[in-house]
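#lab-general

N.A. 3:47 PM
ok so I finally got the sequence cleaned up, no stray characters, all 204 residues accounted for. can someone with queue access submit it? mine expired

B.Y. 3:52 PM
send it over

N.A. 3:53 PM
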Amino acid sequence: MATLHPTAHKLVRATSELLEKHEPNSISVQQVIETSGVSSGSLYHHFHSLGNLVNHALADQFREYGDSIVKFTTRILHTPPGPNEALGLHSVSGKTAARIGTLRKRATRVIAYSIQDRALEELLRPIQDRITQSIAGVFEELKRRGYLQPQVDPLVAAVFIQAYVLGRIVDDLAITQINNDDWLALISHVNRAAIFVPGLNENP
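B.Y. 4:20 PM
back already:
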């Protein structure tokens, strides 16, 4: 979004707001104009079609979801070193899954739309790559500090974290939902067993 012209950015944000209440294919130019306060001429100056604008708005929602995961994961690096740091190492990614339910639903919807829209898929690819590389960078640093098990590939760990964050969408849709503490306990157990160095969270 930082590379967009301010007017284009305004159009994208207005369309994103409309997407909270409407399906992508039901949004009209008139709705976008009324919501954004931008003329139709400006709309077509910055985007070659309404569909192109809608795709950029969907991509912006996906970017917002990704930024939230990167933000939570990066917080690991700002925890003071020591045995208690493991609390952050083991729980941040799990807590991320619990806290970003709304963003997760948006991201899952965007991914579903991209399956049938090649143009949207192409917009998402660089965003997804940046998300994965950013998280992998965190794990690279954790591995350098000796917090990761030696066999763990930081890039694989980055994809794994995202997979279980997004994967919880199945519980979001369930009538009978799992207990959040139980979910976090399982994530913590998996992280300790497969990703982080054993015993890191034990007090001296």
